Amino acid sequence: MIDEIDHKILQYLQADGRMSNQELSERVGLSPSPCLRRLRHLEASGVIQRYVALVEPSTVGLGVTAFVRVRLDQQDDRHLAVFEAAVSEFDEVMECYLMTGEADYQLRVLVGSLGEFEDFLRHRLTRIAGVAQVTTSFALRPVVYKTALPVTGRDKR
């Protein structure tokens, strides 16, 4: 069970993953030792998966965001596994979801230019066995982009 203190720990760490245990313990109202025990438990149980640095894509030359919907010619387990294994190897693919509806998958792809996207599309994505149709939309600008989950007040049961 995740209680109110665990929710607070998650809130503060999602805002600043480099926060010291001392500062975290003060903010959640615990002494450092119990706070660290709770943090280690959240890590060990998989609630906290890892710590990362969030990089602004445009500052590293990745100014084009494409949302790509992919339809496969067959949706059996073998074809799904082949596709998923292939896109997992592409650095440009930031997210990939198995979907319901008209497309089988939706990908979020980051590249430096439209030319790079064309190369990715023509020479990599469409060459995956079983890809039948690809539809792409390009993002003009982000309106809402969050990395912190809304964990406040939610019980995990």
CATH H-level superfamily of the largest domain: Lrp/AsnC effector binding domain/regulation of amino acid metabolism (RAM) domain
Shape: elongated
- The number of distinct structural domains comes to 2
CATH level-two architecture of the largest domain: 2-Layer Sandwich
The succession of helices and strands, N to C, reads HHHEHEEHE
Q: What low-confidence regions span 5 or more consecutive residues with pLDDT below 50?
A: none
| SS class | alpha+beta
Distance between the termini: 7 Å
Instruction: Identify the quaternary structure here.
Output: single chain
Most strands sheet: 4 strands, antiparallel
CATH topology of the largest domain: Alpha-Beta Plaits
CATH class of the largest domain: Alpha Beta
- The percentage of residues in β strands lies in 15-25%
* Computed Rg: 20 Å
Q: Please report the number of helical segments.
A: 5
Number of strands: 4
Average of pLDDT: 95
